[in-house]
């Protein structure tokens, strides 16, 4: 089936398989269609149907609230029934030649392990090696759950056979409840990716700033892993701020301690309690501070924004607050700030 996309700057045409989401077909064809979450939540991939018919994959997708005009639909949720013509309101460009190509893949959940009382890590063994860039994420479909959910890779491996993810328990969340039910190990899952623009490339030669809340630390771990393997902090500074409510909610502290080195500072921000006695002694390579993560970052980063590329992740309100600090106070340009909103 042929899909024609009329964008503000040009038209694209690509083929879509039966049942394939229009967004995924376009990304697979290296067309840079607009999206953020790729899982029906944000509404960024909104388009208008001009000709043809569509199948709706998830009629209750939260992102449907952003559809206002007749004919509008979410490209990440709809598949073409035949040849279709659609219109998007943004500019669309071909993807960079060096970008990792997104496509459908599948794998088996190997393990789920608790990190805190409401956060778990899980691994997916892939059927074939897959390439991704540090900081990217996958859209994942669990058996028996409608729609897909986005999860950032924790690990970094250019030809990965296993992907590591972090999930927070969310009451009423279909994939979340499935992951925490004990049914996930051994289950087959469908994925699409890699996705996301919050990618880290050592060749940019920038100082690194990571601000993450909760499970948003996942993609930062991938970025830090690649940065260390490339000996990035021998040439540049790095600052990591990881926000949680209390020490009970903190995880990956041992892993972060191992990543800590000269040139890289790591601060754990506790929003709901003072720093407990003994925290510094238990993790001497880490710093601890009281406050919301964007507030702690603002205090600690004053005067340190030269040649910085910032990466943000976590709950949308935390990301929005960090963006305001970086734009209004740090005076960073939009190009110096990277984030993917798929929570």
Structure description:
By secondary structure, the protein is an alpha/beta fold. The protein has seven helices and 19 strands. The chain has helices at 22-28, 174-179, 217-229, 253-259, 279-282, 293-301, 316-329, and strands at 2-6, 11-15, 46-51, 54-56, 72-74, 78-80, 84-87, 103-114, 119-130, 137-141, 149-152, 160-168, 188-195, 207-213, 238-244, 264-270, 287-290, 308-313, 337-339. A six-stranded antiparallel β-sheet has the order 11-10-13-8-9-12. The chain has a six-stranded parallel β-sheet with strand order 17-16-15-14-18-19, sandwiched between helices. Helix 6 (293-301) runs parallel beside helix 7. The longest helix is centred in the last third of the chain and has 14 residues, at 316-329. 43% of the residues are buried. The mean pLDDT is 94.
What is the element string, with H for helices and E for strands? EEHEEEEEEEEEEHEEHEHEHEHEHE
| Shape verdict | globular
Unreliable residue runs: none
Helical coverage, percent range: 10-25%
Structural class: alpha/beta
Count of helices? 7
> Strand share of the residues?
25-35%
Look at the structure and give the mean pLDDT. 94
Q: Distance between the terminal alpha carbons, to the nearest Å?
A: 32 Å
Number of strands: 19
Strand order, biggest sheet? 11-10-13-8-9-12
Biggest sheet record: 6 strands, antiparallel
Cα Rg: 20 Å
């Amino acid at each position: 089936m042929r899909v024609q996309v009329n964008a503000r700057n040009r038209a694209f045409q690509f083929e879509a398989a039966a049942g394939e989401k229009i967004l995924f077909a376009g990304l697979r064809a290296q067309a840079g269609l607009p999206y953020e979450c790729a899982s029906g939540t944000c509404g960024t991939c909104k388009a208008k149907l001009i000709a043809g018919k569509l199948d709706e994959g998830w009629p209750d997708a939260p992102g449907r609230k952003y559809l206002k005009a007749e004919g509008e639909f979410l490209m990440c949720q709809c598949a073409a029934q035949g040849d279709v013509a659609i219109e998007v309101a943004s500019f669309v460009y071909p993807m960079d030649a060096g970008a990792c190509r997104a496509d459908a893949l599948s794998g088996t959940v190997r393990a789920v392990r608790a990190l805190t009382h409401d956060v778990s890590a899980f691994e997916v063994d892939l059927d074939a090696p897959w390439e991704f860039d540090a900081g990217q994420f996958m859209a994942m479909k669990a058996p028996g759950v409608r729609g897909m959910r986005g999860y950032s890779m924790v690990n970094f491996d250019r030809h990965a056979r296993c992907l590591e993810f972090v999930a927070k328990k969310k009451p009423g969340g279909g994939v979340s409840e499935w992951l925490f039910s004990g049914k996930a190990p051994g289950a087959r899952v469908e994925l699409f990716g890699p996705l996301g623009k919050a990618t880290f490339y050592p060749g940019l030669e920038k100082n690194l700033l990571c601000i993450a809340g909760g499970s948003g630390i996942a993609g930062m771990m991938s970025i830090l892993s690649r940065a260390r393997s490339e000996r990035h902090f021998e040439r540049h500074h790095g600052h990591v701020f990881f926000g949680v409510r209390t020490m009970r909610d903190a995880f990956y502290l041992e892993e972060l301690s191992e990543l800590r080195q000269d040139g890289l500072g790591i601060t754990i921000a506790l929003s709901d309690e003072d720093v407990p006695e003994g925290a510094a002694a238990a993790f001497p390579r880490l710093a601890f501070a009281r406050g919301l993560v964007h507030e702690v970052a603002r205090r600690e980063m004053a005067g340190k924004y030269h040649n910085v590329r910032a990466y943000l992740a976590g709950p949308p309100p935390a990301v929005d607050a960090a963006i305001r600090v970086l734009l209004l106070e740090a005076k960073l340009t939009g190009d110096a700030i990277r984030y993917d909103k798929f929570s």
